Each structure stands twice: as structure tokens, then as C-alpha cells.
């Protein structure tokens, strides 16, 4: 079959730095073509070029065999090419429906056809099994639901080419399944799909062909058939990969964090749990279970009732700073809106949380620089120019920067919400090792994750949340995917019936 | 009851010294008259622009049922037809200071003399200075009345050979006048006198001159008789030889006459122009009102 | 599950929204009750029409300002632009009397000139902001100085007045109306209704909000952001022209001080009405309420001579803040 | 790791940044050249000290405003706050003469009162904005009306003047100085340097910028956002007090019209200097340049009687816009 969209010898530079080096790539109708590579390899850049958001510096784009150059993304969209961004592309103050139809509103005469749009919005979302009211504002939605809206928006337009940049990074297994089904459906209709994800099992599940990028260079393109996850990972990172999860350390005896009867109005009800020194405690649950809200309640980012004790001392409620001073910090799942100042330099982001440790009255810029060196080293942040703004890092590298920022505060207890969202497999391993090392040093870690293997692989104990409360606490051999899922969905173990 | 009345008084708000004085006199005379004539009620409004003043007048008519209106038009033109409309409803109209654009609307007109204000000052300059002497002028806020004053001033010095080096707007404001005068002093080495067409501006000008240490080189004529300035004239300060009256108390005259016209049969209609006079060390005492804020 | 009412993404947070929405309305009602209790003529025909008619200028402008602010912009030049438009309109009409005589053609010509001048001034702002890319605050602050000084210059430091006969002919456009409703009120109402519909029921309104909420997103959603941004200023310019058409027959003149502080009043009305100053959300009907609140404060201060006139500004300031406190009740800083 | 992390000190956006940064400086230099060519006294000691000393009030205030704007706020009340502070200061000093006599204690008491009044006024703004959560624009617009009217009321519509002898004693604080440099210039310079350091070298400056850039991120980074936001208004209030301490000895008086439009001038200076109006980035030295540009425009217009003074406003407006165009050169709308 002939390629619908093709890139020939595409390079792209930002200022003097070239990040794509003559990449060839093609996409045929009715295929799912996966693009994989490490963080910063150039996947998003490539996708943006194909989607008309960025112009190639040199090289050619071919559409249906004819050379094209998209003036802007609107031109690409007119040619039937749509893209779902790695970073959200939604206006927070607008409603779901307004975002879904932005720029292509349905009209009746000169007026908007609100009813039709709401109907269609419901249909689109229902197709994704997402039951969000179309009249809600995006700013009031949880991160996964925002992602579903983002996906629904692309599904709602008749696309010949659909480019999806890590659509599942913020989704749990259940939503991922729904999404993959939809992708299969589109494929069956002849849509060409370009897909990327750091969850290689997804790639293995749906891809027809796989292209590997490493450091801006095209490494290989081959049929997915017979390309194992392990082989993919090695092709990406260019070296042997050992076991993903390190050995679990044995937690100490003393309790460092005690949460008792914590209620976050509207989200979490009466949650109690404890965390021991040197322990990695996992939090699992479905989207909307309230894990994020519970954690935000604990560190004082949300109004909450109940008590939180750190090393036996009650924490001043409502004060993130007090929590930090007690050695408790929280790493947000929403890196773009709550984690990083995208318009600011790397150092400014890195040191913001721990700024008081950088000099006395005056900030010590040398110490900051050193901290950046160390962060780049320790978290393998791939950055070609240290003076870049945080927003120009690749998504995964932003996540690493956020992780480095949090760790710089030298927490005794760290709550990490979705620690490896958008992180490549090689780095994931490093982060897991890092978490295990923290625990081994006597620090305590809470890992909130929608990736069950991650929760299972890291934690010595797992709290399962369902609909705003802690439904179960599993430890040791009890920790299995099946057990977690059943508890999360509120299915009782004995009968297998919904409670 | 039959013999109770309401008088509406609409004046510009107290944005600078002179208007402050005018506001003071309006309030003081209202307080006095309310004592004397318990049957008269007063409505006082102050406006920062012409539109607001028209609103105020509309409100007085629609909600307060005024029997007479005393107005110092913020600007002549825009107030003309609204005041005319008031008149047409049979309400007594007294206009103060800035006349209306159409003659014969008001029953009573009480005013200062802007042409006179410029002329009297100009005459002093013409008498005192001669061929080749240099002066600078600070004008007020750009308005018709400022134009009238400056034109009259220019007419009065015409032929005297006095050299007007520069004119800038000091906007009847101390700070603006201070800045402008500082710059005049940087720009011109030889200035013999300054006409600062308002005493607020004169204060700023005097300060700038003092800073430059050029008190002995030039004198300053302000205007409208601010009490601090009058006091210095009384002391014979050579830097402020004279001043020109433009009494803010004219509003009190207008309100009193209007009240009198309502309660008594005395005919008070007509025109009262309070001429601008030259204040000199000799007569200064009679223009000194220590209680007035101006 | 149990009785827990864990909120989900399925239900909009109605309660909170409602108080915020209704806040300005409550403030307005409170003012009306206060006015009525202070003076029996307050709700009379004359006072009501007076207040509404005079609100029309700021009102019409504030509706345009709602779009500008919703789109993430600001316009400080509207007051002086109104003065300038009025000046140009008056000069043109005076100049045309020998040609057109006094009558409908003259007034029509004047109106056309006012609208065009307003649109042109708005376009200039829009181009500098949307195309050249200068901060709206600076462009319109500069423009504010420019128009005010140009008007003073045109008027030679004084006042520009419409020829007396022309004015008498034109006067009914402010003072007369339809079925006892003065024209300015009718025009204001029409602009408000059209504005409300445009904001809520058309793609244009959504695009303004999207632009104000997140320009990047709007751009990626095929919204022509530069054009939309520019259009908000042009629209506002046109509405300044329209407001001037109502204003000139009222006072028949223009000077450098015409329209002083209208910009602040208009912006205040917009914000009191619930539009977000940083853009992304606009509420036209709220703006109408905001304008009425501001007008009523002045009106009520005139109803009862309760205080020293020097303190009017204090009372106004406090009421404006209170009107918004009411709106923000229970909502924390954002 | 591979050779991926090629260290390169060539920042892509350097060029653009540099022009943006240097823009206002170029504008200032152009103005200085223009002034020097128009009048030979322009660069003389007297004119230079005059202009700098006059700039000090707005300058000191504008530096505080830089922090407020960087933190995502705005303060429209500073001009009238200055009038109010001056009024309170003068009344207090006059009242204290019988107690303290004329001398250093009196002046010190006056200064303390001015500072405290400024801080209190700033605190009030800050509480309403940061704690009660009302839009800064509305709070400070309301406060603007309140302070202006309170000052008029305190002055009984007129001017509050400092007792003559007290004033003569206090006068040197404006007119004298150190080594020929008048005090206001020295104070302005000190405030500018401290401000620049605070903005760039301290956690406080970083926190202001973080708050303005993204309040959520700041909150999640353990920045006490309410406290920081409030502190910017308190700081500004304190600086208004300080500016007033320099202002009162100049003319020894205050009235309801003192400080009119200072707010707009201060905000304009901040933006001309390169601070972003929507917050997130502030440049104190830029603000100083902005203040000087604005002062020089006036000065040059006075020195060069080239045009009708009616057109001064037009020229000012155009230059302000041009100064910013220079800065935005090559950068598209944001
Ligand atoms: N606007 C920009 N300015 C400068 N450099 C940029 C910009 N955008 C991307 N880059 C750089 O280009 C390189 C490729 O980034 P890209 O986002 O394409 O990576 P990616 O493969 O999508 O990584 P991830 O898996 O982390 O999303 C990175 O080094 C990144 O820092
Ligand atoms: N910013 C927000 N504003 C209002 N409601 C929110 C917000 N974020 C999340 N919610 C609501 O809180 C509930 C739980 O949120 P969320 O989905 O983040 O839970 P979670 O257990 O942390 O799941 P995950 O981490 O997988 O996203 C959801 O029902 C969602 O509607
Ligand atoms: O406001 C004006 C005042 O300043 C001037 O001195 O006299 C006339 C007034 O109208
Ligand atoms: Mg990416
Ligand atoms: Mg979550």
C-alpha cells in the first residue's frame, strides 16, 4: 500500500541544536505505526512535524505521494491530519464541550447548536467510557479525564491520519483498554495511526510496525510481529537491560507517618493508614478513586479533616510548607499545571521547593548550578542546553526534572504521584532503583501509580482505594494484579459480586 | 407646605485650590442659610466632569423636586441645554462663574471676570516691565476660560515690548507647575517675571525658583487670592508684588441671592460680575480670609 | 457503595457557581431597595429613565470591553477615544451644514463619521496589539494620551460645540424614544442582547474566551487568534462610536475632558459583572448589572444628602468593593 | 549515557532576548541624545538633578509596583494613597508641633507616621486581595476612590499645608543631599539597588515570579502564596510611604489632587521596563529605565518648545508606544 504521509530526511533544529537528524518515516492507511525511543529521542518533535505544528528544518514531507509543506497545523488538519499532544492542549477555563468543538463549532444559522454539540460530546465521551458532564470546566476535571477529553476531541474529527503522543501516559489499565479498542476500530476504518508510548506492552499489543528513534536518529523500522518488548527496549536505549525492579528493602519498625480519619470533602472519606521508616507503600486504584486528593489533603494542599502525624507530631493543617519542614513532600501528577514553571529556566524550577537551602539571604547561583549538574547526572535528564526553559524539555525529561526538584528538598517522606509518567523504560529502571535506594537509606516513600506492575514491583504494602476510601491493604504475597483490581472495583473476594 | 423650598447646588469637585475654596464657601453658606431659613432645604452635588454634573442636575429635578438651581457649569457648552431644560420646567436658575453658551437662560448670573483676570495681570506686567524684558507663562487646564484669560493677558501686554519666552500648561496644579518651572529655569538664563495664572501654580513656581536660587532675578504674579499668597503680599514680599482677585466666595453670593429670591419678594435676577481687582500690599488685608481653605 | 457523596466529574459544581453568579444581582437589588427607601421618587418614571439613559454610554462601551477582556486584553483608551470621536463628529457635522443643511442627512453623516472614526481607532489599537505584538496596556495607555491631547488640540484648548440648530435637530436622539423609552436605553438594550447572544451562542464568543483562556490552545484549534484579538478592539471601537452617537445629542459638545475615567468605569463594570480580568471567561449580562450598579451608586448619593460630598468617593469605593465581595463569598483567592 | 548532552552555551533565544532587554535602554539613550541636541543645558547639573529628583517619587513607587505586577497583581491606588499618606503625615506633624517642637523628632515622627500609614494601606489592599480573594483591580480601584476622597475630606476640599517653620526645617530632605546628590536621588538609587537584588538574588524575588507565573505550581512548591501576594502590596504601601516622605518636603502640601495618575505612570514605567503585565517576570532595573524615559519625555517637551503644548500628550503617547515597539521588535504577539 502506498504511504499516506511520509517524511524524507527530516531534520529539525532548535536554535543551533539539531534534535532530529535526517529521519525517514512513512505511514500507510489502516496501520498502527508505533514510534518509540528514549526521553528526548525526538518522538514528539517528529510527530509535531508530521502534524503541521512544527516545520522541518530540512527534508521533505509527502502527502499522498506529493510533497507538501504545511503552513500551520490548520493546514495539516485540513488535509485530514490530527494530533493528540503529549501535553494537554485544552483551555482550562472552557467547558468540556467548548473544548471539544473549539474551532469547528456546530451551528444552526449564525448561532451555535449547543444541544447538538452536547449530545455529540456525550456520545464521543461515552465511546471512551468516560462519563464527564460536557458542561464542566476542564479546570475542574482530573488529569485522566482531561486526557479522555483530549482523545475524544481527536476522535470526533474525521481524520485520515491520527497522531497520538503518549495518550495513555496518564491513564490506568481500564481506560487504556477502552482507548486501544477505539484505535483498533479506527484502524479498521482505514485511518493511519501514529502512536507512541513508553508502555511497551501496549506497543506490542496494537502496533503493526515499529520505528525506533535514538537520539534524533532513525534506528530501525520493522514489523511488530516478532519484535519483543525486551528487544524494543534494547533498541531504544542501545544497551542491555537488566531486571526492571530492584529488590525490595525490608521496612523498619517505627512509624513515620500516621494518617487517621482523613476526610477530603467531596473526594475522600475517613482514610487511615501508616507508613514505616524505610518502607515503600503503594497506592492503587481506578481513576477517580481519590488517591491524588488524599495525598493532597495529607500535605495541606486541600482542605481536609482528620489528623496527620509525622514522627508522632501532628502536622499543621493546610500548610505545604509545614509539611515540607517536617520532611514530607508531595510530587504532583500534574506536572504541567502544578509541577513546573514551563516558562522558566531549569535551575529556577529545580530549586524552587528547596530554595531556602541555597544560600542565606542571597541565593547562591553556583550552588544552584551544581544542583543542576547533579540532577542531570542523577536523573539522566537529557538536555542539550542548560539555559533552555523547562517547557522546551521533552515530556519525560520534564518529569525527571520534577522528580529532581522534589528530591532536592531532601524529604524524609516522599509521596510520588505517578512517578514514571511518560518516562522511558531505561530511565524507569533508574527511577525504581532510586526509590529503592531511598527506602534503603531509611527514607519512606508512597508511590501512587496507575501502573499496576509498578505498584506491585516496588511496594512492600499496597493500599487499594475505591470511590474515595481505602478499600483494602495488601501486603507480601497478597499483592497481585487480580487482588488489587478486585478491591479497586469493589468486588468482594468471596462472592465475586459487586458489593 | 407652601413655603418650603429646595435649592439644588451643582459645582465642580474640589480638584485644586480654587475649587477647594469654592467648595468651602458653598458648604459654609449652605450651613448658614439652613440656620436662617429653616424652610429651605439644600442639595449639594459636586462633579468631576461635565457628564456627571448633568447627571446630578437630572437627579435633583427627578428625585428632589428642586425649586431653584445654582450651578457652576463644569464646562459651558455641555451644560447649556440640560440647564435650559431645567429652566423650561419653571425652576429658578442661577449660573455662577462660567456662563452658559446661550444667553438669557438663567435668571441670575454671578461671576468672576476672566477677561478682567487676564487683563489686570497683564496691565501690571506692562506697567512694570519694559522693552526686551523676558517673561514665562504657566497656563491652567486647557479650557475656554483659560483661553480667555491668556488672550486678555496677551492683549494687555501688547505693545509693551515684553518678550513672552514660553507658555506651558501647569494645569492649576502645584506639582505640574513646579516641574514646568524647573525646566523653564534650565532653559532660560534670563527671566524677569512669571505669570502663573493661579495661586496653586504660583506656589510651585516659587519653590522651583528658590531651589535654583534665582529669587532675586524674577517676580511672580499668581491669581485668585490664595490666603498664603495674600499673607505674603501683606508682608510686602518683593517676589510676589501683586495678585489678582477671582473670589471663590462668589458661589456664596450666588446661593444667598437665590435663597433670598425664593423666600422674599426682593427681585434678585440680573447679572453680578465681580470684577477682578489688583491686590497690592496696601489693600491685601481686605482679601485675607484665614478660615477659608484657599 | 454507601451514602458517601464523593463528587465526580459528572456533576458540575452548581452551588458555588450560583452564588458567584448571583452576587452582582444581589448587590443591585440591595441598591434598589436602599434607593427606594431613601426617596419615593427613586422608582418613578423620570428617575428610572434618567439613570438608564445615562448608563447607556458606559454601558455600550463596557459591553465591547467585555469582549476585549474576555479575549485576554484591556483597553484604557475608550474614554479619550469617545472624546476624540465626539470631536471629529462635531467638527464634521459643523463643516457639512453648508452642504447638507440641517436635517436627517446631516445627522446620518455625523453618525457614519462617528462609527467610522471609532472603528478606525479600534483597528489601530488592534493592529498594534495583535499584529505588532505590543502589550495592550501600553498601546491603549499611549492611545489614551494621544486622543485626549488631539481632542484638546482640535478644540484649541476649549470646547467643540455642535452648531446650535443642528443640535436642536439631533437632540431627540438622546431625549426622545419609543413608547416613552428613550433611544439610548433602547440602543443599550439591543447592544446588550446582541452582545449576550454573541458571547454565549456564537462561535465568536467562544473563540474570544478560548483566546483569553489559552492562546496556544486556541491557535492549535484553528482559531484565527490574531484576527479574533484584533476584532475585539475593532468591535469596541465601533461601540465607542455608537456610544458617542448617543452622547453628542445629550451635551452637544466635546472637550479634552469628555469621557474622563470612562475606561476605569467600564472595566470596573465588566469585572463587577463577573468577567475574569485575565481573560477566558466573559459575561455580558453581568456587565450590564455592573454598569447599573455603578450608575445607581451615584444616583443614590444624590438622593439623600447624608454625607459631606467630599466623602462620596469613599462610599463609592467601598460599595464597589462590597459588590464584588458578595460575589466572591466563600471563594478563596485565585 | 551518550553524547546526547552536548553542552552548548549558545541559547537559541539569546538574540531575541537581548534586543528585548536592551530596547528600553536604547529608547532612553535616544531620548538623551535628543534632549542634548535640543538644549545645551539638558545635560547640565541642574537639569539632571531636577529630573532625577522628580523621578524619585514615581520611581520608588514603580519599584514596589514591579513586585506587585511580577506576582500577578496590580495596584491602582498608589497615587491616591500617596495623597492620603501625605495628608495624614502633614496633619500629624502640624498637630505634634506643640508637643515635639520643630526639629528632628518632629520630622522623624512624621516619617514614621508616613511609613506606617503606607504599610497599613498596603496591608489593607493585601488582605482584601490575598485573603478575602477579591480581584486586585477592583480592590485597588475602590481604594483609589476612597483615599482620594478621604484626602479631600481631610483637607476640607483644599490643601493641607505643613506648618511653615516645620517645613523650612524639613525642606532639605528634598533639596539637599550628599556630595551634591539630592536625597531623593540617593533614596531612589538605594531602593532600586535593593529592589534589583531582592528580585534577582533572593528567594522572595523568585517566589514573586513563581506566584505570577503559575500560582498552582508555586503552591505545590511550598511557596506561601497568600503571604507572598500580600507582602507585595504591603511592600508597595511602604514604598508609597517612603516616596511621600520625599514628596512632602518639596512643596510642603497635599491635596485631593496630589499624585493623580501616578498609578498609571508607575504601571507604564514597569511595563516599559520589560516586566510582564500578566506576571511571572519582573525586571527592577528596567523599571528604573522606564521611569527615566517617562520623566525625560516631559522634560524634553518643556525644554524644546517645538509644538503646540496641546499636543504634548500626543507626543508622549507615541513615544511610550515606540519605546515598547523597540523592545518587542521581532517578537510576535503573546
Ligand atoms: N522548543 C524547543 N526548544 C529547544 N529544544 C527543544 C524544543 N522542543 C524540543 N526540544 C528538544 O528536542 C529534543 C527532542 O524532544 P522531544 O520532545 O521530541 O522528545 P521525545 O522523544 O518526545 O521525548 P519524551 O519521551 O520525553 O516525550 C529534546 O532534547 C528537547 O529538549
Ligand atoms: N482539579 C480538580 N478539581 C475538581 N475535581 C477534581 C480535580 N481533580 C480531580 N477531581 C475529582 O476528584 C476525583 C478523584 O480524582 P482523580 O481521578 O485524580 O483520583 P485518583 O485516585 O488520584 O486517580 P488518578 O490518580 O488515577 O487520577 C475525581 O472524581 C475528579 O472528578
Ligand atoms: O478652576 C479655576 C481656578 O483654578 C482659577 O484660578 O479660577 C477660575 C476657576 O474656574
Ligand atoms: Mg514526547
Ligand atoms: Mg491521581
TrEMBL record, chain A:
It comes from the Bacteria. Pfam families: ABC_tran (PF00005). Residues 5-240, 239-492 form the ABC transporter domain. Transmembrane segments: none annotated. SUPFAM superfamilies: P-loop containing nucleoside triphosphate hydrolases (SSF52540). Its main location: membrane. Keywords: ATP-binding, Cell membrane, Membrane, Nucleotide-binding, Repeat, Sugar transport, Translocase, Transport. One of its GO terms (molecular function) is ATP hydrolysis activity. One of its GO terms (cellular component) is plasma membrane. It is a peripheral membrane protein. It is found in: Cell membrane. InterPro entries: AAA+_ATPase, ABC_carbohydrate_import_ATPase, ABC_transporter-like_ATP-bd, ABC_transporter-like_CS, P-loop_NTPase. This is Ribose transport system ATP-binding protein. It comes from Sagittula marina.
UniProtKB/TrEMBL annotation, chains C, D:
Keywords: Cell membrane, Membrane, Transmembrane, Transmembrane helix. The chain crosses the membrane at residues 21-39, 51-69, 81-100, 106-129, 136-155, 175-197, 230-248, 284-301, 307-326. CDD domains: TM_PBP1_transp_AraH_like. Its main location: membrane. The keyword Membrane applies. The keyword Calcium does not apply. It is a multi-pass membrane protein. It is found in: Cell membrane. One of its GO terms (molecular function) is transmembrane transporter activity. InterPro entries: ABC_transp_permease. GO terms for cellular component: plasma membrane. PANTHER family: ABC TRANSPORTER PERMEASE PROTEIN YPHD-RELATED-RELATED. This is Ribose transport system permease protein.
Amino acid at each position: 500500500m502506498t504511504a499516506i504521509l511520509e517524511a524524507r530526511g527530516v531534520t529539525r533544529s532548535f536554535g543551533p541544536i539539531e534534535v532530529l537528524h535526517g529521519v525517514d518515516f512513512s505511514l500507510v492507511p489502516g496501520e498502527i505505526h508505533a514510534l518509540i525511543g528514549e526521553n528526548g529521542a525526538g518522538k514528539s518533535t517528529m510527530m509535531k512535524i508530521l502534524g503541521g505544528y512544527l516545520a522541518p528544518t530540512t527534508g521533505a514531507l509527502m502527502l499522498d505521494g506529493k510533497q507538501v509543506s504545511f503552513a500551520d497545523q490548520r493546514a495539516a488538519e485540513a488535509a485530514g491530519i490530527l494530533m493528540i499532544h503529549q501535553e494537554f492542549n485544552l483551555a482550562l477555563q472552557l467547558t468540556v464541550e467548548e473544548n471539544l468543538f473549539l474551532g469547528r463549532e456546530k451551528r444552526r444559522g449564525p448561532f451555535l447548536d449547543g444541544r447538538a454539540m452536547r449530545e455529540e460530546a456525550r456520545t464521543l465521551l461515552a465511546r471512551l467510557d468516560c462519563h464527564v458532564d460536557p458542561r464542566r470546566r476542564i479546570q475542574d476535571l482530573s488529569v485522566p479525564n482531561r486526557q479522555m477529553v483530549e482523545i475524544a476531541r481527536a476522535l470526533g474529527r474525521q481524520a485520515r491520519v491520527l497522531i497520538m503522543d503518549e495518550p495513555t501516559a496518564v491513564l490506568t489499565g481500564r481506560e487504556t483498554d477502552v482507548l486501544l479498542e477505539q484505535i483498533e476500530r479506527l484502524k479498521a476504518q482505514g485511518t493511519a495511526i501514529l502512536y507512541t508510548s513508553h508502555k511497551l506492552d501496549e506497543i506490542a499489543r496494537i502496533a503493526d510496525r515499529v520505528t525506533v528513534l535514538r537520539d534524533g536518529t532513525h534506528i530501525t523500522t520493522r514489523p511488530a510481529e516478532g519484535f519483543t518488548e525486551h528487544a524494543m527496549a534494547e533498541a531504544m536505549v542501545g544497551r542491555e537491560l537488566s531486571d526492571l525492579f530492584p529488590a525490595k528493602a525490608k521496612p523498619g519498625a517505627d512509624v513515620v507517618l500516621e494518617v487517621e480519619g482523613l476526610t477530603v470533602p467531596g473526594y475522600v472519606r475517613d482514610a487511615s493508614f501508616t507508613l514505616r521508616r524505610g518502607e515503600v507503600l503503594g497506592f492503587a486504584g481506578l481513576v477517580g478513586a481519590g488517591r491524588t486528593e488524599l495525598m493532597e489533603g495529607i500535605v495541606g494542599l486541600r482542605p481536609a479533616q482528620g489528623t496527620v502525624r509525622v514522627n508522632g507530631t501532628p502536622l499543621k493543617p493546610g500548610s505545604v510548607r509545614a509539611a515540607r519542614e517536617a520532611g514530607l513532600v508531595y510530587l504532583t501528577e500534574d506536572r504541567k499545571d502544578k509541577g513546573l514553571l514551563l516558562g522558566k529556566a531549569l535551575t529556577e524550577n529545580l530549586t524552587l521547593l528547596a530554595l531556602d537551602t541555597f544560600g542565606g539571604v542571597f541565593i547562591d547561583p553556583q550552588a544552584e548550578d551544581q544542583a543542576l549538574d547533579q540532577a542531570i547526572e542523577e536523573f539522566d535528564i537529557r538536555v542539550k542546553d542548560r539555559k533552555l526553559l523547562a517547557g522546551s524539555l521533552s515530556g519525560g525529561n520534564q518529569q525527571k526534572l520534577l522528580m529532581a526538584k522534589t528530591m532536592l528538598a531532601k524529604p524524609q517522606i516522599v509521596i510520588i504521584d505517578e512517578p514514571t509518567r511518560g518516562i522511558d523504560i531505561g530511565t524507569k529502571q533508574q527511577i525504581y532503583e532510586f526509590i529503592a535506594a531511598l527506602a534503603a537509606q531509611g527514607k519512606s516513600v508512597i508511590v501512587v501509580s496507575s501502573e499496576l506492575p509498578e505498584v506491585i514491583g516496588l511496594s512492600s504494602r499496597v493500599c487499594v482505594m475505591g470511590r474515595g476510601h481505602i478499600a483494602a491493604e495488601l501486603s507480601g504475597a497478597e499483592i497481585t494484579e487480580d487482588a488489587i483490581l478486585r478491591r479497586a472495583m469493589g468486588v468482594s473476594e468471596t462472592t465475586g459480586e459487586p458489593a | 407646605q407652601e413655603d418650603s423650598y429646595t435649592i439644588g447646588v451643582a459645582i465642580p469637585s474640589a480638584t485644586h485650590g480654587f475649587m477647594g475654596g469654592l467648595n468651602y464657601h458653598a458648604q459654609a453658606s449652605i450651613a448658614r442659610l439652613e440656620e436662617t431659613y429653616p424652610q429651605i432645604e439644600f442639595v449639594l452635588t459636586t462633579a468631576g466632569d461635565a457628564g456627571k454634573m448633568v447627571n446630578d442636575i437630572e437627579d435633583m429635578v427627578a428625585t428632589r423636586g428642586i425649586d431653584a438651581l445654582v450651578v457652576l457649569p463644569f464646562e459651558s457648552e455641555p451644560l447649556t441645554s440640560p440647564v435650559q431644560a431645567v429652566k423650561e420646567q419653571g425652576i429658578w436658575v442661577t449660573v455662577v462663574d462660567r456662563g452658559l453658551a446661550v444667553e438669557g437662560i438663567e435668571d441670575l448670573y454671578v461671576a468672576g471676570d476672566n477677561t478682567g483676570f487676564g487683563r489686570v495681570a497683564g496691565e501690571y506686567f506692562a506697567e512694570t516691565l519694559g522693552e526686551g524684558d523676558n517673561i514665562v507663562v504657566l497656563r491652567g487646564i486647557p479650557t475656554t476660560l483659560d483661553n480667555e484669560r491668556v488672550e486678555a493677558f496677551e492683549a494687555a501686554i501688547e505693545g509693551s515690548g515684553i518678550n513672552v519666552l514660553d507658555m506651558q500648561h501647569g494645569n492649576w496644579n502645584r506639582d505640574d507647575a513646579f516641574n514646568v518651572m524647573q525646566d523653564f529655569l534650565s532653559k532660560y538664563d534670563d527671566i524677569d517675571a512669571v505669570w502663573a495664572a493661579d495661586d496653586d501654580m504660583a506656589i510651585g513656581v516659587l519653590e522651583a525658583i528658590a531651589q535654583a536660587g534665582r529669587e532675586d532675578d524674577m517676580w511672580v504674579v499668581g491669581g485668585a487670592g490664595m490666603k498664603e499668597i495674600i499673607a505674603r503680599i501683606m508682608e510686602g514680599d518683593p517676589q510676589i508684588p501683586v495678585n489678582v482677585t477671582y473670589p471663590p466666595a462668589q458661589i456664596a453670593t450666588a446661593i444667598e441671592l437665590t435663597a433670598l429670591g425664593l423666600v422674599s419678594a426682593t427681585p434678585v435676577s440680573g447679572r453680578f460680575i465681580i470684577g477682578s481687582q489688583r491686590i497690592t500690599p496696601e489693600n491685601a488685608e481686605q482679601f485675607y480670609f484665614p478660615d477659608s481653605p484657599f | 457503595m454507601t451514602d458517601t457523596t464523593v463528587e465526580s466529574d459528572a456533576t458540575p459544581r452548581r452551588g458555588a457557581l450560583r452564588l458567584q453568579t448571583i452576587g452582582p444581582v444581589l448587590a443591585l437589588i440591595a441598591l434598589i431597595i436602599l434607593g427606594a427607601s431613601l426617596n419615593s421618587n427613586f422608582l418613578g418614571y423620570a428617575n428610572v429613565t434618567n439613570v438608564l439613559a445615562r448608563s447607556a454610554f458606559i454601558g455600550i462601551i463596557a459591553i465591547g470591553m467585555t469582549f476585549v477582556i474576555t479575549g485576554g486584553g484591556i483597553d484604557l483608551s475608550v474614554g479619550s477615544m469617545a472624546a476624540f470621536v465626539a470631536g471629529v463628529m462635531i467638527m464634521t457635522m459643523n463643516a457639512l451644514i453648508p452642504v447638507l443643511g440641517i436635517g436627517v442627512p446631516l445627522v446620518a453623516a455625523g453618525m457614519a463619521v462617528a462609527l467610522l472614526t471609532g472603528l478606525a481607532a479600534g483597528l489601530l489599537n488592534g493592529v498594534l496589539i495583535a499584529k505588532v505584538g505590543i502589550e495592550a496596556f501600553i498601546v491603549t495607555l499611549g492611545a489614551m494620551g494621544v486622543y485626549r491631547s488631539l481632542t484638546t488640540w482640535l478644540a484649541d484648548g476649549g470646547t467643540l460645540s455642535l452648531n446650535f440648530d443642528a443640535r436642536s435637530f439631533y437632540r431627540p436622539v438622546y431625549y426622545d424614544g419609543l413608547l416613552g423609552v428613550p433611544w439610548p436605553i433602547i440602543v443599550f438594550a439591543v447592544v446588550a442582547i446582541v452582545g449576550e447572544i454573541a458571547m454565549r451562542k456564537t462561535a465568536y464568543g467562544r473563540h474570544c474566551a478560548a483566546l483569553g483562556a489559552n492562546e496556544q490552545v486556541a491557535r492549535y484549534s484553528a482559531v484565527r487568534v490574531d484576527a479574533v484579538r484584533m476584532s475585539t478592539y475593532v468591535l469596541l471601537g465601533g461601540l465607542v462610536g455608537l456610544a458617542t452617537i448617543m452622547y453628542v445629542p445629550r451635551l452637544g459638545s466635546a472637550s479634552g475632558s469628555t469621557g474622563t475615567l470612562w475606561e476605569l468605569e467600564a472595566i470596573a463594570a465588566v469585572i463587577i459583572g463577573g468577567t475574569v480580568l485575565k481573560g477566558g471567561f466573559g459575561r455580558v449580562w453581568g456587565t450590564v448589572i455592573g454598569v447599573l450598579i455603578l450608575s445607581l451608586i451615584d444616583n443614590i448619593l444624590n438622593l439623600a444628602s447624608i454625607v459631606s460630598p467630599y466623602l462620596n468617593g469613599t462610599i463609592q469605593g467601598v460599595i464597589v468593593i462590597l459588590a464584588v465581595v458578595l460575589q466572591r463569598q466563600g471563594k478563596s483567592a485565585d
